[in-house]
Write a structure and sequence with these properties.
By secondary structure, the protein is α+β, with helices and mostly antiparallel strands. It has 5 helices and 4 strands. The protein is 36% helix and 9% strand.
Length: 151
Amino acid sequence: MAANDSASAGKWSTYGLSIYIGRQGPKPLGTVVFEEIEEKAREKLKDYPGKKALDRFAIIPRMLVDATKRSLETTIFGVTHSSPIFIAPIGVQGIFHGDAELAPASVAGKLGIPFILSTASSRSIEEVAAANGNGHRWYQLYWFVQFFNLT
C-alpha cells in the first residue's frame, strides 16, 4: 500500500472506530429533511411481508484481531477503491436541493469515492461529469419496459 493509500485507510479506520465507539450513525448534513424521507420509507415498508422476519436480525461487529488500523480497500471490476463506499443514485435530486446531483458528485470526486448517476438525474451526464472532476463514475441505467409516444 502506498503512503497515500495508507493515509486514506487510516482516515476510514478512524471514522469507522468513532462510529463504532459512539454507537450512533453519522449525523445528517442538514441539506435535506431526513424526517420526510424516513416517513416515506416507513410508509413503504409497513406492509412489506418480510419485515417481521428481518426485524429478528441485527449487525453485531465482532473483531478477533487488533482492528484499530485496517484497510477498507476493495477492488471492484479491476479498479481498487479506498473503501467499499459508493455514492449511490437517487433520482431527481433537484427536488431536494438546487445543486441536485452536482454537489454530491463534486464531494465524491474530492473524497475519491465513486459516484453513480441515476437515469432519473436532474442534471445532464456532462454537468455531473464536470462537477465530479477526475472522480470514478458509474451510470445506473433504468431499462424502461414501456416507452411512451409523446407526439
